[in-house]
Design goal:
ABC transporter involved in vitamin B12 uptake, BtuC, two-stranded antiparallel sheet, about 325 residues, globular, mainly alpha, 4 strands
Amino acid sequence: MNVLTKKPATGEETGKHFLTGNQRLYALVAMILIYALFAIFGRNFFSFETAVNILDASYYIGFLAIGVTFVIITGGIDLSIGTVAMCSAMIGGVAWDKWGLPFTAGLVIILVSGALFGLLNGVLVSRLKLPPFIATLGTMMISLGISSIVSKVQTVNFPSRTSEEGWFKSVFSKVQLPSGAMLPTGAILLLAVLLIAFVVLNKTKVGRYTFAIGSNEEAVRLSGVNVVFWKTIPYIISGLCAGMAGIAYASTYTTVVPGAGQGFELDAIAGVVIGGTSLSGGVGSVFGTLIGVMIMSILRIGLPSMDLQPHYQKLFTGIVVIIAVLMDISQQKKR
């Protein structure tokens, strides 16, 4: 039977709603409980300013996580998204600062660079049959090298908020209202990308094949589907989202350092897993991914409010990821 005429799964297995599936529900409850814990015991945690800081900490990781959700649903992995995001930002920044291109062109170059890295990953995995772990690990190394070569091992500075090109900071991070409060416009953009990803994943042919390949790639191949093509698309989406993450990072921190980005992919993948997307493929939800990313952002901002060092975040994140994977294994056995 052609996979286009029969959806790969329904209900809980497709993850079409962020409350569909016990693990996503548990993640939502956990997010609320963690926030409440910090609000009660943390210093000055329960405030509008802290909420904005939490959103600030989730922008670039959120874009990375949304993109890699598509890859993980296919049963693959993308370890290169962190360094690809920074390398793409480095290329776009150099194009504007050193090569004299218009700043808007530099932003477009960032997105195109990310998509090209994603295409490279897709070709390596789908056509050349390299294991996703090895292929994307290699791309991680390539992006690190290109980042240093293009920048000549120098830090690239993006426009400040007061400069003519500083408009991008208001679009990708936050803008100050006349009252003095900060409006997190980056959160609005992240939500817009999330909704687009939801539609693509659940209402289009790309999404149906993504779920189908993750559920049973051989069955999709025997149905006469061009698996090489459709398996490449999620990696391109992941690379494009990495480019957006690079822009979001530059708008938040202004400077990009050569060789940066290692470790970002772990935060993004952890958010995806915590949100209920199965590492074995075939099951996932971008709304669940957003919950996972928010949990990690709350931990990142909340732990210092309780006088705990940031490295405790890695400890607690690791524990949460292990619990999430164990829950996923349990659900697979039940299915």
